[in-house]
């Protein structure tokens, strides 16, 4: 067999068939669907306070020592408008919440009050994203003052300190909300409850 010589001997041989086109890349697998979010409860798994879908009120206070007693008066007045009252230590409890928020050193303090199912949630936000360490006795003092539950949480908006207290009906002013209805009055002759119309 005679091998070719000369310039043609160095030329690459053309392929006998066209090269195969590489297959298209496979689609990456889609991520799994996220698990369903459970319905919101009064308190989350970590004891976080939730205020959605509740009747409530909110105030913005100066981050000053005198804001704490002012906050106690505001909460007492709002509960009276709802025809309810907290335990006898409610004023001290609100004062402690706001004083704790003031001690964080923010520019202002937000006070939130919400009511549901015969209980009130009181929350103070310090608007200080980097607050100092919380006093270890703050939560225990809130429980001593009658808090059914209490807690704290720090976010980019500041630290919140909250407490839940039980409410009881009281004599309502004429313009109070009908959230705590009065019990029916008794008939003087028969002693049976008188039906209200």
Structure description:
The structure is a single chain. This protein is of the alpha+beta class and 197 residues long. 18% of the residues lie in helices and 22% in strands. The chain contains three helices and seven strands. Strand 5 and strand 6 form a beta hairpin. It is elongated and about 115 Å long.
Features:
197 residues, alpha+beta, 5-stranded antiparallel sheet, 3 helices, 7 strands, 22% strand
Fold topology:
Blueprint lengths: L55 E7 L4 H15 L2 E2 L4 H14 L4 E9 L2 E7 L12 H7 L4 E7 L2 E9 L1 E2 L28
Antiparallel strand pairs: 1-3, 2-7, 3-4, 4-6, 5-6
Distance between the termini: 121 Å
Tally of separate helices: 3
Low-pLDDT residue intervals, each spanning 5 or more residues: 36-50, 181-193
Q: What global shape is seen?
A: elongated
Question: What value does the average pLDDT take?
Answer: 77
Strand order of the largest sheet: 1-3-4-6-5
The proportion of residues forming helix, as a percent range, comes to 10-25%
N-to-C series of helices and strands: EHEHEEHEEE
Main sheet: strands, sense, barrel: 5 strands, antiparallel
Number of strands: 7
Query: What percentage of amino acids are in beta strands?
Result: 15-25%
How would you name the oligomeric state of the polypeptide chains in this document?
single chain
Structural class from helices and strands? alpha+beta
Could you tell me the radius of gyration in angstroms?
34 Å
């Amino acid at each position: 067999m005679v091998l070719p010589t000369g310039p043609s001997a160095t030329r690459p041989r053309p392929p006998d068939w066209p090269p195969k086109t590489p297959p298209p890349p496979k689609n990456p697998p889609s991520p799994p669907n996220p698990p369903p979010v459970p319905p919101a409860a009064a308190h989350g798994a970590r004891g976080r306070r939730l205020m959605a879908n509740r009747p409530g009120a909110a105030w913005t206070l100066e981050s000053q020592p005198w804001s704490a007693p002012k906050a106690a008066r505001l909460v007492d007045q709002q509960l009276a408008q709802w025809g309810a009252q907290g335990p006898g230590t409610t004023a001290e409890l609100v004062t402690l919440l706001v004083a704790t928020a003031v001690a964080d050193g923010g520019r202002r303090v937000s006070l939130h009050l919400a009511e549901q199912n015969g209980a009130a949630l009181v929350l103070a936000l310090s608007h200080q994203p980097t607050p100092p360490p919380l006093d270890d006795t703050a939560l225990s003092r809130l429980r001593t003052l009658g808090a059914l539950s209490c807690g704290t949480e720090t976010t980019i908006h500041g630290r919140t300190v909250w407490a839940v207290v039980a409410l009881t009906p009281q004599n309502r002013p004429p313009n109070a909300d009908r959230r705590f209805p009065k019990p029916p009055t008794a008939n003087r002759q028969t002693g049976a409850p008188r039906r209200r119309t």
